[in-house]
């Protein structure tokens, strides 16, 4: 199974340059505190994930309001299944959680990244 699509690299770069406010907050105020190294906007197959930690094979997705429609939820389920098929664990946070409860997001992220 092909996991890296080179043609998505320009789009991923553009997305890193133009992060949403919740993505910026997650990156600069939360993920910079954890000791694990994350990459932003990493292509996997036909998708670009928000954040990826190779050490733990963890994908972090920040979901905005557009993810609440039934079509978007179906798409997210397919995307999650694809990523899980690659052996990745997908953790989702809502924009609202990131903007209003960053301490709680950080606590959960820290728990998820603690070795068993």
How would you explain this protein's 3D organization?
With 116 residues, the chain is an alpha+beta fold. Helix content is 46%, strand content 22%. It has 5 helices and 4 strands; from the N terminus they run ααβββαβαα. Strand 3 (58-63), helix 3 (70-85) and strand 4 (89-94) form a beta-alpha-beta unit. Helix 2 (21-31) packs across helix 5. The termini are far apart.
Helix tally?
Answer: 5
State Rg.
Answer: 14 Å
**Low-confidence sequence ranges:** none
User: How many E-type strands?
Assistant: 4
Fraction in helix: 40-55%
Mean pLDDT: 88
Shape: globular
Main beta sheet strand tally, sense and closure = 4 strands, mixed
Strand order of the largest sheet: 1-2-3-4
Cα distance spanning the termini: 28 Å
Short note summarizing the structure:
46% of the residues lie in helices and 22% in strands. The chain is of the alpha+beta class and 116 residues long.
């Amino acid at each position: 199974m092909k996991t890296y699509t080179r043609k998505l690299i320009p789009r991923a770069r553009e997305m890193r340059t133009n992060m949403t406010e919740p993505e910026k907050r997650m990156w600069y105020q939360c993920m910079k505190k954890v000791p694990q190294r994350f990459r932003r906007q990493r292509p996997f197959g036909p998708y670009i994930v928000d954040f990826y930690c190779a050490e733990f094979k963890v994908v972090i997705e920040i979901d905005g309001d557009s993810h609440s429609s039934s079509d978007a939820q179906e798409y997210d389920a397919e995307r999650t299944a694809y990523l899980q098929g690659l052996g990745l664990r997908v953790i989702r946070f809502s924009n609202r959680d990131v903007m209003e409860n960053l301490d709680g997001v950080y606590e959960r992220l820290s728990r998820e990244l603690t070795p068993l």
